[in-house]
Task: inverse folding
């Protein structure tokens, strides 16, 4: 495709928020409320208010609402136990203390909760010592839509469908960003502070419940800046994702399996009971591993496991079945085919307690951040995290913007990035973009998925290098293809980092399971840090902060 970009459009803002999901919206709201005179702009790859948050079930964890014995300290203990002791305890402490106020804060922003007698209905999710999980009316959309409307009314500005391709710095400070849209327009954002809220990278796996835009953009941006990524080997897979004809829907196993539904292999065996376990005690990482091992051993049906609904206590989950029915789940069937699917990244950009990254003025929040969940995330903590730390990130980004003068990005830096993008846009090629992406996703699923070992991880790294060469020969037919290719580039970077981290951690811990090192080792209660230095990937280990 022989073409050039349209003239760049420049925006001067105080706080730039990259990502329009729950984390980005909460950060933008807090920034604007902290200093109403600041210009706050949310740039989103999709329409703001969508992304991963909108497809979530709407579960959040709030301690101290139910059993009087519950406390932030017990909540923190549960989180670190699930995270297998490699969580950042400072971040966990902030998280569990602030979670007490979560319902009140979100109600203020217009969010409605499922309530009985004026109080949020509490449920228990495996791994929690007490019932502390609440749910929102309208699930994920019931969170993002009120926040989006609230932000609009505050005067937060939005720029949708723009992919940020580069974060720019001046010495040790962030000064702005450059992006591109699917119509061939370049955008330059001069900013005093930036909040990265870009979500995870679940789409780089062949089976994922994430939207297609979850391609690891924030991890790649941070990696290109030389910022440290922590715990990237820890990827959570949700065990029960429906793969029926025309139906793709995540089924909360805590709802169905705990209430009697049975997961069976092709031999008809109850795969949980087969291992001497009970459904209420099986966390997501363990159940995903059980199902994947059955599939890899050839005990799946077409690579899937059956969810047997004949044993389900339907009355106990009647309301949930009605919700599933509206989403296309075949509730009247006796058996439904399911598989684990990539769900959430525990690893990500390293931050401090103020959500500050290693670059002054650059903050990060949500799934793009690592350290809070350790090796495995408890159910309900993802949404709690984005709103708790979104508020913290927004407040600190606003405070930073009040201290700084706007620095205009140099024309030379803009030209370098535009030339890079034009070179990709106009590259000659015959390779199919779809086929290259499919190869990448299959490589990650089979080689760097739920079950790993040294051989598979090395194979993945070699295949990713081959894919990296192949994309130089991909046929680009329009600007939309360019954006998709840039996303594939990001997934290659992130996939390589995940593979390297997984190869380096010679043990199994939480969501990270290696058949050649199947046991958890005390000597590995430490974090793996990966960053780019002088164009090379460096790996180090770091003791857990105290």
Result:
């Amino acid at each position: 495709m022989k073409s050039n970009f349209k003239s760049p459009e420049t925006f001067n803002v105080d706080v730039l928020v990259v990502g329009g999901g729950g984390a980005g919206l909460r950060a933008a709201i807090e920034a604007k409320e902290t200093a109403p005179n600041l210009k706050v702009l949310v740039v989103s790859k999709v329409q703001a208010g969508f992304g991963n948050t909108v497809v979530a079930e709407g579960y959040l964890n709030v301690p101290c609402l139910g059993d009087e014995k519950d406390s932030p300290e017990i909540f923190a203990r549960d989180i670190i136990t699930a995270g297998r002791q490699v969580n950042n305890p400072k971040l966990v402490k902030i998280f569990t203390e602030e979670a007490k106020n979560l319902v009140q804060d979100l109600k203020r922003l217009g969010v409605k909760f499922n309530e009985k007698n004026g109080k949020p209905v509490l449920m228990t999710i495996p791994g929690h010592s007490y019932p502390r999980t609440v749910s929102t009316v309208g699930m994920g959309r019931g969170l993002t839509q009120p926040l989006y409307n609230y932000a609009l009314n505050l005067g937060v500005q939005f720029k949708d469908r723009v992919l940020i391709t580069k974060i720019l710095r001046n010495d040790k400070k962030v000064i702005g960003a450059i992006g591109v849209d699917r119509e061939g327009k370049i955008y330059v954002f001069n900013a005093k502070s930036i909040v990265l809220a870009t979500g995870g990278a679940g789409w780089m796996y062949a089976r994922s419940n994430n939207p297609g835009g979850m391609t690891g953009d924030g991890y790649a941006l941070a990696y290109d800046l030389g910022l440290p990524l922590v715990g990237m080997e820890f990827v959570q897979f949700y065990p029960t994702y429906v793969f029926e004809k025309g139906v793709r829907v995540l089924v909360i196993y805590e709802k169905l399996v705990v209430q009697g539904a049975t997961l069976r292999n092709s031999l008809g065996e109850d795969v949980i009971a087969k291992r001497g376990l009970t459904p209420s005690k099986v966390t997501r990482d363990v159940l995903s591993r059980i199902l994947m091992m059955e599939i890899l051993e050839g005990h799946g049906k077409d690579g899937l496991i059956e969810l047997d609904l004949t044993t389900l206590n339907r009355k106990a989950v009647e309301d949930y079945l009605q919700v599933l029915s509206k989403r296309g789940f075949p509730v009247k069937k006796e058996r439904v085919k399911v598989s684990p699917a990539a769900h959430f990244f525990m690893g990500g950009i390293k931050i401090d307690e103020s959500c500050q990254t290693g670059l002054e003025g650059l903050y990060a929040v949500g799934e793009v951040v690592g350290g809070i969940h350790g090796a495995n995330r408890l159910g309900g903590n993802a949404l709690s995290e984005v709103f708790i730390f979104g508020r913290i990130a927004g407040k600190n980004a606003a405070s930073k913007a009040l201290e700084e003068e706007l620095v205009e990005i140099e024309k030379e830096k803009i030209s370098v990035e535009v030339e890079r993008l034009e070179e990709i846009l106009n590259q000659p090629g015959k390779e199919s973009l779809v086929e290259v992406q499919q190869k990448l996703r299959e490589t990650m699923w089979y080689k760097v998925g739920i079950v790993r070992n040294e051989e598979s991880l090395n194979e993945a790294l070699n295949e990713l290098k081959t894919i990296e060469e192949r994309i130089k020969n991909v046929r680009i037919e329009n600007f939309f293809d360019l954006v998709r290719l840039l996303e594939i580039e990001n997934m290659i970077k992130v996939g390589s980092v995940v593979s390297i981290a997984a190869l380096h951690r010679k043990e199994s811990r939480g969501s990270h399971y290696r058949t050649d090192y199947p046991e958890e080792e005390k000597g590995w209660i430490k974090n793996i840090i990966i960053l780019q230095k002088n164009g090379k990937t460096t790996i180090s280990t770091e003791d857990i902060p105290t």
